[in-house]
């Protein structure tokens, strides 16, 4: 009995030491990210299991699987500063690779890539092969843990879905602090102003005004079926949130700038990162904001 008691105490001490080490790692904000050794990261299985029975209640992108659909990375790691031939598949409820999709915002699938500290955002569109494998040359700028989101609608399904998975880019990583909330930002010589506030539990109207050299831009070009495309990610867990444009080209009421209006549905209070893609003069630009939602 004394031996069992001592073994129990020793095991408890190991748990305490491990927990302290994890806490210290989170406080320092700097660590080494290692490349995968094969197979899928363990947390993917946990995410897939967590989705059962509750997927409809969760914001998009928190799960690897939903309603029988599963995001399966073929490429399990990224290379910082170099091109990775990134490949993945969507597996359907029948266990087969999905090959047919219903386009949303003019694409069969939208791929969002961002580091866990919400830096290095990319919105790209991979190519679908005949066997159901999606591929795209992908370059991430720096080491770290990246979240990859797939936003798509399988053929025959009434609504789109968003599945996500974490992938490492090996190297020494130091988190970038989330930028402070501002109403105005600049990108590629454009100034973008944010009007409106987020509120938890409701649909919030936010408007972004685009100008250049002090003049309002009134000839924005359609991009993904609208004069702008907005992605919102929640700080912390990187929940991918629903953002809907108000009107679009050719509807008889929506003008091509300078204002682009969206309705954002945020489930909780706290900080969010907003990414606005807009097209002008034949080029897509991305303006980024930090916004804080009122509420619980």
Annotated CATH architecture of the largest domain: Sandwich
Tally of discrete structural domains: 2
User: How many runs of DSSP E, i.e. beta strands?
Assistant: 21
In round numbers, the mean pLDDT is 86
Describe the structure.
The protein is mainly β and 296 residues long. It folds into 2 domains: 33-173, Immunoglobulin-like (Sandwich); 184-293, Immunoglobulins (Immunoglobulin-like). Helix content is 12%, strand content 42%. It is built from 2 helices and 21 strands. It has helices at residues 2-28, 42-50, and strands at 30-33, 65-66, 69-73, 83-91, 109-115, 122-124, 127-128, 133-139, 144-152, 161-169, 171-174, 184-187, 190-195, 202-212, 215-216, 229-234, 240-241, 243-245, 259-266, 270-280, 283-293. Strands 12, 13, 14, 15, 18 and 19 form a 6-stranded antiparallel β-sheet that branches. The longest helix has 27 residues, at 2-28. It is globular. 29% of the residues are buried. Residues 1-29 and 37-56 have low confidence and may be disordered.
Short description:
The protein is mainly beta and 296 residues long. The protein is 12% helix and 42% strand.
